[in-house]
Amino acid sequence: MDWETKLIHSGYDLCEHTGAVSIPIYHASTFRQPSIDNFGPFEYGRSGNPTRDALEGLMAVLEGGMYGFAFSSGMAAISSALSLLSAEEHLVVSRDVYGGTYRALTGLFNRFGITHSFVDTADLGAIQAAITAQTKALFLETPSNPTLRITDLAACANLAKSHGLFTIVDNTFMTPYLQRPLELGIDVVVHSATKFLGGHSDTIAGVAVVKDELLAKRLRMVQNTFGAVLGPQDCWLVQRGIRTLKVRLDAQQEKAAKLAAWLLAHPQVAAVHYPGLPAHPGREVHEAQSGGPGCVLSFTLADRQGARAFLKRVKLPLLAVSLGGVESILSHPVTMSHASMPKKYQEILGIEESLFRLSVGLESYADLENDLAQALDFSR
Ligand SMILES: *Cc1c(COP(=O)(O)O)cnc(C)c1O
User: For this structure, is 120 an active site residue?
Assistant: First the structure.
């Protein structure tokens, strides 16, 4: 099936009693057991729920996996995937991972004896050099946040296999429509479904997908034991969002690409990070492993002190954390998503005062460009 068909017809078989075209929201905490020898398809709402089951099945299909798991947030999905590790085990992690993942590793999992090394995963040699006898997994994010660095997923999967490691990829920025890590040999895909999958900035949700039966069994155990499951109402909202994933991303991506080129040519802009730009580092790798550059870009102002003046004037993109909604969202990583990261680290990653991240929404291109143009007009 083509993508537009798959997005609309996967995950839910029409209700045979009513013919309802949308999955019912099953608000039930427990399900009657047919007998003491037969638990039936569902027993207790934490272990499984029909509305959640439909979302999990849909995500498994879209990612080209076998088993999906829906969690109460992207961080719950990531923390649950990290809980596949045990004390004394070590992870190699993309050094510019999502701030919440950084916090989970440095403030929580380290307390349970799970250690990590942050490396530039664009550099295979750096990954190789960080692997020790304790290393069990690689945790990757590509394009990364906020400077959209590219990691070669197939090469990392091969390297990991040759060392007996498993691999986790945070695929939030791309979604399965644009990038399917499992098809490139990755073992676990995690998502913040809060972003493009939900797509409307109206729910917090997370998803993980795996292909391998044994990993699925272990992740199901974590999901049921840790219990950070997604409620049925939110499972329904994410499914509704997913139905329009392709049309949203196609339209948003087109605007993002135009804005990236326009910003690059603007005299008040010093640099633009976007995998669709010809000079973007790793562009060829990204093109080979994905279906497009996506809808998120970042840029630095030529006037390093201009951030506040720019922010005061910008009207259309909302100043907010988060991304992936129908509305354009502008964020300031230094004071927002990466505020908890040590200064020294921010500098290594190019996260400076004048850096902004823009998640391009569905507004008219002309309105977005005009608004950024007036906000960047420092002569006023
Ligand atoms: C937002 C985000 C997360 C965390 O997801 P929540 O749903 O906010 O818990 C993880 N990874 C990336 C890349 C994100 O953008």
Answer: no
